Amino acid sequence: MVVPAQSSIADRARRPTSPRSVRRALALNPSGALGVLIVTAVVLAAVFAQWVSPFDPLAQDINQRLKPPLWAEPGTAPHLLGTDELGRDVLGRLIFGARVSLVVALCSVPLSALLGSVVGLTSGYHLGLVDEVLMRVVDIQLAVPFILLVLAVMAVLGPSLRNLIVVLAATTWVHFAKLVRGEVLTLRQREFVVAARAAGATTARVVRGHVLPNVIPTIIVLTTLYVPRMIIAEASLSFLGLGIQPPTPSWGGMLSEGREYIWTAWWASTFPGVAISVTVLGANLMGDWLRDALDPHLRH
Description:
The protein is mainly α. Helix content is 71%, strand content 0%.
């Protein structure tokens, strides 16, 4: 039997975030609104890239190579942000490059979150030998530097979009597992979980009905905060030649190609760097806002 006070605690912890509370949290957090605006703009540009981009990102025109941006002398009107060493439009490549970054981030992070959450729930709730084995696997992987592990695996598997997504997911799930396990260790001692077990609820029902709903907000926030990390990781690997391969436009690849012309054509590498920085900033701001909006302890 669940005591009323305990039931109210459970209900309050599991209470879903209403659209009204989300709008209120957004109105009270201007930086969060800015983050949402930035991320929305990047997503829309990536989704409608074929209609938004002024030029084909793969079209080459040697006669237009290394043309400066429109406002720089002697700027060329058709190319707002100038052209690269092969005469390709920088703005068009930036827009299509957003697709690559978002695909990698939005595919690898959910896979990582799913795997890590399953491991964390299993380890934190069952404890014992299961917990020991799973946490030792997590500790071993955490002992290896992230970028070193990614570089080593990508060098073995070879650069491709699929391999990049799989590798990033397989090297970040441990962080989700650690965090979810910590949350579960706290929740399994809460009154409503103890009462559910005492009432005869099965393990699957307790985890599904009482533990998981309280962990989901944390998973969502961590997922949002890991999206910018995956964008940076993809850009880093593409910069080193182990990520997205030319001629497919990617922000990291554009940085790598433009670095040779940094003194004569600064725009070729500056604008991809700005795109990465602004997108990562927006995603981080949105993640902070989501934390405030979804965490029941931070609601007023």
